Amino acid sequence: MHSNFLKYFDEVARQGSIRKAASILNVSSTTVNRKILDVESQLGTPLFDRTPEGVALTSVGTILLEHCRKTLYDFERAKIMMDDLRDMRTGHLQLSTIDSVAYGILPDALRQFSRKFPDISFSVTTAQPDVIMQSVAAGEIDVAISFLMDLHPDVRVVNEKSAPFGIIIRPDHPLAGRPNVRLVDVAGNRFVRTTDARGGNSYLDHRVANVANKLKTHVYSNNLFVAKEMILAGHGVGIYTKIGFLDEIRAGKLCFVPLLEDGLSDIRVATLVSASSGLGPVKHHICKVIGDLLTDLRLDS
Hints:
alpha/beta, five-stranded mixed beta sheet, DNA-binding transcription factor activity
């Protein structure tokens, strides 16, 4: 429907009078009335009951008014966002992510984002998924990328991607080239494993608590770079998502083999924001960049 009709219809409903609405809108009563009559004719039903005292919404008019006001609100909000986008010159984004994303797609995302917003600065921290979720819910973080687990009611998922765990091995490992494996297939290997920097169990340990303590671990580290170097040097097999090893896998230095294991094959990585803070132009753009990069990745094989 024409935007003029939406404005006319909304104002007539507010005033209960075509004449009063026309005066506020600075148009003639005839113009307002004709526009409403045209739409009533198209719909085949009246939107207002006309009385000597003015007009009152019919049941159909009440339904249409809800649509009308939502459309006007969304349009005004879109205009504000576009104005914000045009006026945006400086600002700061607080980002938090799991370690693997910091080594994977985040640098590319920031490079792409900075081409459009060169004067926006960043703070980037890495943390465990539970800490990230709480920080986003509390409004301490603008945008986060983390495993999608135990979603907090105050956190909104903007986009997500399947990112199952698998083994990370060198190309000369006997299991390289397998379409998938189970933990029992690799139980005899030495492992390179992640520890929580706080001294607790890692995300992997929580997902496979009944198996994790049986793995023969050669190297523990809370730093993905160290873990990666140990795997490259042949000191063990890693159990990670593919996202933190993309460069090495593309270069043929490492291989990823998906794990067919309950709790490890259904993992998803998501872009998260506070449900209460809204998604302005800057956050919307960084989330879109991250989402596009995730979409282009094949993380399950």
